[in-house]
Every structure is written in structure tokens, then in C-alpha cells.
Amino acid sequence: MMNKKMAVIVSLLISTNMLSGCAKTPGTPVVRPKGEHAMEHYKEAENLVVPGEKSETLLQTRLGIPKHYKNEVSDTTGKLNVFTDADLIIPEVETVPAIYVKRHESDQEDIDAITRALFGTADVYDLHGKIEEQRSYETVPEKRELSKLTAPYVFKEELIDPWMPETGSVGKVYSVVRAADGNSYQYHLTKEKNGSLGIWAKKIDSEGGLAEGASYLWFEYDSMKLLYSWVPDENAVNTGIAKEEAQKLADEKVAALNLQEMQIASSGIVLELRLGYSGRPQEKDMTDIGYVFHYTRQPAGIPVTYTVIPGGGKEDGMNSETVPWAYESLDIYVTSDGIDEIRFANQYDIGERKVENLELLPFSDIMAIYEKMMLIQNADVLTDKREEGKDIGEPLQVKNFYVNKITFGYTRIYDPQSDDSTGLLVPVWDFFGTYELSYDGENIISVNDVDKSFMTVNAVDGTLIDRWLGY
Fold it and tell me: Domain-by-domain residue ranges, the chain?
């Protein structure tokens, strides 16, 4: 008789075959239960203790996980290919619980604690006046005296997008901090309707320079190197600071924030560009170089898998009153001059465990789903839609995926229709790498979306999780 795990796989693959004949389904996961329907899948595992096994090999033994996996699959045309040659990153744990998380509702006490952690006892000065004058194209005197902010801070309502008023507004505080070390930082706070607090701190050369309205953005080195020939080779990159020293500075800030079980999940070299250039960026637009450290929680010894995808999107037809919930994120940028930028948003409160030791699908079952669905979900890019009158160009002639990293970790899921402030950390498999595109079958464009998972498979039931939506 077919066991329960195989029944799940068979039903998924049958659904997959049925869906593959429909032109509109490749972008839609086979199954994506939410809320109570999803919770039904999270069962306690039985008889999983392996006598004499070391903890670092128990999960691998239990699920039949190899240290390395290599395989390739293609569609019937040979135009869509998935090459997997990947190391597997598995946490050294014996058990895998499901853990509740709640949206942290920030108040002035939190703001004060975060400000002290980042800047000590330095005063915070109101920048709203400067920002408003800057937007009205008026000249702002360099030495204009700013007023100190006193608690409680007043968040001024501002449209998220002035061109799309239906998106609503958020509360904003624009300020500047004159730190004890002589540096000044832009310090912006964003208060969402759902109570979440967003923090952004950025070192500035001078307060007067804020009037120019210049903006800067960090980009991952690996992605930029593939796109632009002027980006220096990695052996020629000089950050001016050792990665270990930069990480120490970042870790000290995170420790001061006193966040439960927060660890580095991903890091790398980044390039800063001054925005406002026309056309493609050039070497002259690069203003700095440094390291980024992305932090996530690591409850029960299992990291929340970092992904550049923010989550918190909305499905088509979703009620406009539905409040989306993006993933918790904490990113710190460090240069040779020290901490340059800090971003912290959507703080979680870690709650109780729903299940202490989840029953999980074998690795072979996960890979069967991954390899089948990578072809189905990406088949649409090869379809020519120009005759349908859609504003879209010619279809791809070739798309090749090269998966070089497979991770086991947590992600947060939730049901925005029933409860937009409570979620569940569940174990998932994520697949990372690079891909190639060709519109003529000959000229190849290589793309490396760093930390962007190609697919997220629920380790409990094999369902696909949409990273953009967050469930």
C-alpha cells in the first residue's frame, strides 16, 4: 500500500501533468495551501532517533541527503534546461520544529532602544523641513539650524507613491544624527499601517549635501561583474578593510540591537553607485566599495534562508484592504570608513512551537518536485504571445539554469486573508545559481541574481511557496 508521503508526491505529479497542458498555469504553483489548510500538514514525526548517530549527520541520514547533487533535466524542445551541480547546505540539527512568529508592533520605546544601539546617546535632529524644501526645489542653506526631536516622535503621513494614491500612505520621520565619532547619518523611520517599523541609517559627508538630493544604492558585486566590463576583477578589488574586520563591526551593531537568535545568513562584496546617470552605469558612477552582511534569525539552530526577494506581495484580485507582510530583514553595509548603511524592517517576535519535530519528505521526493516544476514554471518564457496583442517582445529561444547551491532552512508563511500579523516558520528547500538567456539561439546573456531563489519547496508537504507573496 502506498504510504502517505508517496501519496503526496503522486498527487503532485499527477496535478503537474494535468497542468502542463494548460498555457496559463506554468507561473502558478501546483498547490499552495494557506491558513488552517496549511497547518494540517504539520505533523509530529515518529521514531526518528537513530541510536549512535551524531547530531550533525542525523538530519542527512533521516532524509537521505547527499553532500552533493548533480543532475540535468530538459523540456521536450531542448530550449529549457536545468543543470544542477550543487553543494547542499544543511543545518547540524536533530529535530526540526514549526515555530510561530508575530509581527512586532513597534512603539517609541523600541525607537529609543534602536537609536541608542546604533548611535549611543547622540541627539536626533528633524530633517522634515529640509526634505520638504528640497522637494520644492528651494535652496537649503548649509548651516540652517535643525531642531532636536523629542519623544514621542511625530510620524508625518506621506503617500507611498504620489502617482498611485490608491496604494495609501505611511508615516515618515526624516532625521539626521550627529554621532559622537564626528560622523553624521541620515536616519529615516517608516511606520506602516500594520505597526511595523522600518529603519534606514546612511552615513553622509555633510548635512548641506542633503539639499542636492543625491541618492546612492549598493549593488552586489557578482551581479554587476556579469553585466558590466568596467567592474574590476575580483583579485583587483580593494575594499580597504578585511572582511573579518568589517564583519566584526557589523556584528557589534547587531549585538547592540539585542535581537533573539540573529546571525549572518549571507555576505559579499558590494559596489555603491550614485544614481541619476543616463543610460547604463559607468565606472565614474561608482562611489564606494565595501561588504554587505545580511542577517536572519536562527531559531532551533536552523537559519531563516536569506533571499533578496522581500515578500509581502498581493495576489491578483486580493482585497485592497489586505495588509501585506514582507519578510524580516536586517542588512548592514561596511566600508573602509566603518559602518556606512543599516536597514532593518518587519521585525518578528519569535513565539511558541507548533510542532517539536516535523515529519519531512525524503530528499529524493523534494528533488522530483523541483526538477518537474522548474520546467513547468519556466515554460511560459518560450511562448510567443505577440499574436495575443500583449505588449511583449519576442520569446526566448534558450533559457539555461545552473543551480550550484541547495539549502535547507526556514521561511515564514502566513495567510493575509485571515491573519496578517501571525505566521509560521516552516522548513523549506531553496535552489540558487545563475542562468543564461538567448533570444536568437546563439548570443547568450548570463545573469547572476545573487541570493534570489529559483524555487522554494516546502520540506513538509512538497508544496511550492511563492517568495514574492510570502506563502
Answer: 4-101+353-458, 105-346
